[in-house]
């Protein structure tokens, strides 16, 4: 699977996408994220988030079938916090023409349980996504040994969560 990593830059006072890198991951069998375990495997196996000493937040931009179209590093924080703004998240998602996004970050402490701030930020992102028409499919937190899906604990509303719908679509498409 080829992963395109982007960042945004100002060019003539306008935000534009700039390809930061393009890397092939031959061991990754597909570029679809059907389950939180797929996201966790990507975060651990390719971004190595479980080894980081500071918090990193990434956004996976997905098309309508939840195929990866862009990857953004949203924030690089300290040992126990990282700042995230819905404005910057959705600016990048819109520029990448994403239909869905998945947030992914690590907890350097090793504990993958979400903080109250993690849940509040996810809910703010979900609310903003409803307004701009981009679904927040999940927010996965990587610890040293395990991972946590905010979606699986229903902090993301079931009406916005597309995991079941995606599995049905993928079965119907023969993927």
UniProtKB/TrEMBL annotation:
Record Pfam families: RadC
Keyword match Metal-binding: yes
GO molecular function: metal ion binding; metallopeptidase activity
Residue runs in coiled coils: none
Keywords: Hydrolase, Metal-binding, Metalloprotease, Protease, Zinc
Biological process, per Gene Ontology: proteolysis
PROSITE patterns (UniProt xref): MPN, UPF0758
Domain MPN: 32-156
CDD domains on file: MPN_DUF2466 (cd08071)
Similarity-based family: Belongs to the UPF0758 family.
This protein's name: MPN domain-containing protein
Protein source organism: [Ruminococcus] lactaris
Organism ancestry: Bacteria, Bacillati, Bacillota, Clostridia, Lachnospirales
């Amino acid at each position: 699977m080829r992963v395109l990593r982007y960042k945004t830059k100002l060019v003539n006072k306008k935000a534009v996408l700039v390809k930061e890198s393009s890397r092939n991951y031959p061991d990754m069998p597909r570029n679809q994220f059907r389950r939180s375990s797929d996201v966790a495997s990507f975060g651990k196996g390719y971004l190595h988030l479980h080894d980081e000493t500071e918090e990193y937040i990434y956004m996976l931009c997905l098309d309508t079938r939840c195929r990866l179209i862009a990857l953004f590093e949203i924030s690089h924080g300290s040992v126990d916090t990282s700042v995230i703004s819905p404005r910057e998240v959705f600016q990048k998602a819109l520029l990448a023409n994403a239909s869905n996004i998945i947030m992914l970050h690590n907890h350097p402490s090793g504990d993958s349980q979400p903080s109250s701030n993690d849940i509040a930020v996810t809910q703010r992102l979900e609310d903003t996504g409803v307004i701009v028409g981009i679904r927040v499919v999940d927010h996965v937190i990587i610890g040293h040994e395990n991972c946590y899906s905010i979606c699986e604990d229903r902090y993301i509303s079931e009406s916005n969560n597309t995991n079941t719908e995606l599995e049905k679509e993928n079965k119907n498409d023969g993927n």
